[in-house]
Design brief:
The chain has 550 residues and is an alpha/beta fold. It is built from 22 helices and 13 strands. The strands form 4 sheets. The protein has a 5-stranded mixed β-sheet with strand order 2-1-3-11-4, with helices on both faces. It has a 4-stranded mixed β-sheet with strand order 6-9-5-10. A two-stranded antiparallel ribbon has the order 7-8. α6 packs across α14, α11 crosses α20 and α12 crosses α13. The longest helix has 22 residues. The N terminus is likely disordered.
Length: 550
């Protein structure tokens, strides 16, 4: 995973029911549609250049765009009855032709289409940092974006995010990242630890923990008291790949990664850039994790726990704390279970999120990853006129009025608006019947995860939305993003292109290990050295110097 693969619950989550399609059949379909698109492009060349059309007007020339996206065939199955899709296609004079991919086959299909020159006009994949991404950009498999995006002002502003600009190669961008939010501050909620405050109080705790030591003391009290006599454990997780997003905050926050192995951050230490995971500040975090595990403050079965089981154990009181991702999941996956077990008590009266603890250097850091997960690409075979229409489409999707449309429907029919306040006039189920594509198609350009902080978000528990907004203010006022050089995460060198760092893997092994932490850490460093760690560091530092990165 490049990043946790989820959209906003209900309104913002991509459908998970997959339709099996054979690679052979899909390849033939794409080939047929690509040929049709090529013929259309040839005919288009004799007509008026749409790039010269007046900005904001409906393009005169109709155009078909083939789109490969997760479950898009289901999303567009009833396009003629879908009010949102009909408006999009009418406003841009386009027809969106779906090419289906699923979570099980998307990477293989897209790589196969790329190798056989059968790519659809638009496709989405998490390719950043992979060797095939580098091959695509170097060999013209994907189309670069124009350096001047001023014709598409909303898209231009979206692409100006420093996190996105760091992806440039030779001054060019080759994709439109599918954004999660517009600031790295929101990464703070990519890793949340929630704890049972009700059980803590029953165990004699009267103050919410504000430091690592206080947090460990609270967990110790809960486990020892076992208020509900369930042999309660300490902290568990939804996914062990997410452990680093919490434990590295103790002494080495830049070491955290998304679990893919390729997004590791680079920091400057002793005069040279190194992967943050191999900083001299790593050992204290490993020792802290081992200490918590040995004291029974970490679920002994944490390596075996799967997502749904983690939520179940937490809600039922079998563990005292839970590491998970996103405030939207608090409102859905966690709250749903809570309501069944405690129908008379709101979850947030009994559950709290941990505060931001000072690290060993005295600074409060928050989790940091990227402002996007996965990317949209455009076939290198499309001409400039088709690229222009695609960029118009992406600009259109990012406009506030478009977002309002796919979130709430038709103004004064499905919702009413007074100032910034939205009043829904139909239920979510009714809206989904009118706009069956909304769960999928809006995610083509961005995930829109920031909507979970919007007070108008009627898909989440209002109290969860409110505490999420309040906590983001705390993040901005009290915490810092660790220092690192984002450009070096994406730089290409012979060794780095094949190098992965599975920080969550060695963190888990050392945490649960029975040999001295220092000894196990030295062995990990030796293993990575044998894979070419020092060689990679030398190559990256040479690139940094060449690029003027000090």
């Amino acid at each position: 995973m490049k990043k946790v693969k989820q959209l906003m619950a209900v309104l913002l989550t991509a459908a998970v029911l997959m339709t099996a399609v054979t690679a052979c059949g899909s390849g033939s379909e794409v080939s047929k549609q690509t040929n049709t698109s090529a013929s259309t492009a040839a005919g288009n060349a004799q007509q008026q250049d749409t790039s010269k059309e007046e900005s904001g007007s409906i393009p005169k020339e109709p155009m078909t765009l083939t789109v490969a996206f997760w479950d898009i065939d289901q999303a567009l199955a009833n396009a003629e009855k879908d009010q949102f899709i009909q408006k999009v296609q009418k406003d841009l004079n386009v027809t969106l032709k779906p090419i289906n991919i699923t979570w099980d086959d998307y990477s293989q299909k897209i790589q196969m289409w790329a190798a056989s020159s059968q790519l659809p006009d638009i496709f989405s994949i998490d390719a950043i940092g992979t060797q095939y991404y580098r091959n695509w950009t170097q060999q013209g498999v994907v189309k670069p974006l124009p350096e001047d995006l001023s014709k598409y002002p909303t898209l231009e502003k979206y692409m100006s995010n420093p996190d996105i600009q760091a992806l440039k190669q030779d001054g060019k961008l080759y994709c439109v990242p599918r954004g999660l939010y517009d600031s790295l501050d929101y990464c703070a909620h990519d890793r949340n630890v929630w704890y049972r405050w009700d059980l803590a109080q029953k165990a004699g705790i009267t103050k919410e923990p504000e430091t690592w030591e206080e947090f460990k003391s609270m967990l110790t009290a809960i486990v020892k008291a076992d208020p509900e006599k369930k042999k309660i454990g300490g902290m568990t997780a939804v996914n062990v790949k997410q452990l680093g997003g919490f434990f590295w905050l103790y002494s080495n926050p830049a070491a955290m990664s998304d679990g893919s192995g390729s997004d590791f951050k680079w920091i400057k230490e002793d005069g040279k850039y190194i992967p943050a995971a191999f900083s001299k500040n790593t050992l204290p975090s490993l020792e802290n994790a081992r200490d918590m595990y040995e004291k029974g403050l970490i679920d002994k079965d944490i390596a075996l726990v799967k997502g749904q089981e983690g939520y179940d154990k937490f809600a039922s009181g079998k563990v005292a704390a839970l590491l998970e991702v996103g405030y939207d999941n608090v409102s859905t996956k966690m709250n749903e279970r809570w309501k069944k077990l405690y129908p008379d008590t709101h979850m947030l009266d009994s559950v709290k999120r941990v505060k931001y603890f000072p690290a060993t250097d005295g600074t409060k850091y928050h989790a940091v990853f990227r402002t996007f997960w996965s990317e949209s690409y455009f076939s290198g075979k499309i001409d400039d006129k088709k690229l222009d229409r695609i960029l118009m489409l992406y600009d259109y999707f990012l406009k506030p009025e478009t977002k309002e449309s796919y979130r709430f429907g038709v103004r004064d029919v499905d919702y009413a608006k007074e100032g910034d306040k939205i009043k829904t006039l139909i239920s979510l189920d009714e809206l989904k019947k009118k706009q069956p594509s909304l769960e999928v198609i809006q995610g083509l350009v961005e995930f829109d995860n920031q909507f979970q902080y919007d007070p108008n978000n009627f898909t989440l528990d209002p109290r969860v939305v409110e505490i999420g907004r309040e906590d983001m203010e705390v993040v901005r006022k009290e915490t810092k993003i660790p220092e690192y050089q984002p450009q070096l995460t994406y730089v290409s060198t012979p060794t780095k292109d094949k190098f992965t760092i599975m920080d969550h893997d060695f963190l888990l092994n050392i945490m649960m290990g029975n040999k001295p932490v220092g000894q196990m850490w030295e062995n990990v460093k030796k293993e990575y050295e044998a894979k070419g760690l020092s060689r990679m560091i030398d190559e990256v530092n040479a690139k940094a110097k060449e690029a003027g990165i000090n």
